[in-house]
């Protein structure tokens, strides 16, 4: 049975930050390869949400119907939506997933949300920039010694990325979830990054 990976989307979410990861989970790292996971969506309510690009989406879940047995959370960034008071209601879900040693991945402003709540203080991580992270996350963020200036960083089951690193973010999530063999993950990344054809493995 396929395990669910929950993509947390708030109004004005960044379409591109989730797209590659969802495709690789739903169809195989390379189309035709084994599929272990399925992408599902969650927002604060089940009301429709609209992306930065104007796509209208009806979430599968809200915070009251969160599936207890899911395999991970992918927090998708956007236009300051992670800094709203409403976003605070997601903190218990993140805490639960970290406590259970499941995937928690945050890109762009969602990585700042993780920093703001102390989730990055003891793991290697990245974000949109260290000063940006420190300025917005505030005093609960004390993890600057673990900050790495890279597009995406994985430390165990915690994955972070800046807002322009959707492909690197995808690659690190695929590794964290052990979705396929390393060479297949790298081939998928190379295809989307450089336009090289799949080898057909």
Automatic annotation (TrEMBL):
Example of a GO biological process term: proteolysis
GO cellular component: cytoplasm
UniProt GO molecular function: peptidase activity
Keywords for the protein's UniProt record, in alphabetical order: Hydrolase, Protease
Record-annotated DJ-1/PfpI domain positions: 3-174
Pfam families listed in its UniProt record: DJ-1_PfpI (PF01965)
PANTHER family: DJ-1_PFPI DOMAIN-CONTAINING PROTEIN, PROTEIN/NUCLEIC ACID DEGLYCASE DJ-1-RELATED
Protein's name according to its UniProt entry: Putative intracellular protease/amidase
Source species: Dysgonomonas macrotermitis
